[in-house]
Amino acid sequence: MRRGYVDTSLGQVHYRESGQGPVLLLLHQTAESSRMYADVMPLFARNFRVIAIDTPGFGESDKPDAPPSMADYARCMFEALERLDVRTARILGHHTGASIAVEMAASRPDRVQKLVLSGCPDYDPEVRAEKLKTVAPASLAADGSHFAKAWARVAPYRTGWATTEQTDRAAQDTLKAGPNYYFAYVAVFSYDVRARIPAITAPTLLIGGETDTLTARLPLIQPLFRKAELHVFKGSGSLPLNEIPQAFADRVAAFLSVP
Description:
- About 35% of the residues lie in helices and about 20% in strands.
- It is an alpha/beta fold.
- The protein has a single domain (about 1-255), classed as Rossmann fold (3-Layer(aba) Sandwich), CATH 3.40.50.1820.
- Strands 1-2-4-3-5-6-7-8 form an eight-stranded mixed beta sheet, sandwiched between helices.
- The model has no long low-confidence stretch (mean pLDDT about 95).
């Protein structure tokens, strides 16, 4: 695996890269990093040049001074791809990464060949407004209890299948994001994916784990796409890319490989 940094309008962003072939861009959820794709990157790298980017504010990327908009995040990702000599790409985004992927595909349809949205955040306007009221900086405790809170934040989504190392990886990324990890949530809850979907021309795969609360919304947005398939991973939770990496990679690769 290759790693590096490129300059963007939101500062330096860190990326992981592996494999050769058509480009597949991976975008992660809040408050993790591109490390969340560690289980599936080797699987995708058999057929694609896989690029996983740390969203600004997360992982090893620079932290913005103020909350970026979804359009800012999307522009930053295109800038990073340009620095890596990538003109067009297939994009897979999970949760927050799915929102960024929607905006990328809507704002520059000529540059997105195919789109995979894993647990795409879709909320009614009143729900988004209520969620915006709750976002706030994470507090740092003098007794270090915020370390335990980071573990408690990520562990419930991994119960029953995750190794200690997988949970630790997610907790570390949450801590590294720092107090302003909520910046990404401001963008997500301010963003109306339904308003942007009609501008998307790329064939789209909507996927999600059966018990992920966002999966229940996928059938509601599917008709808004020009061409979209829907697949639910039965028995899986909100992180099928980590819980069942082989099945996840196989389904995504099958969709991406169809001309």
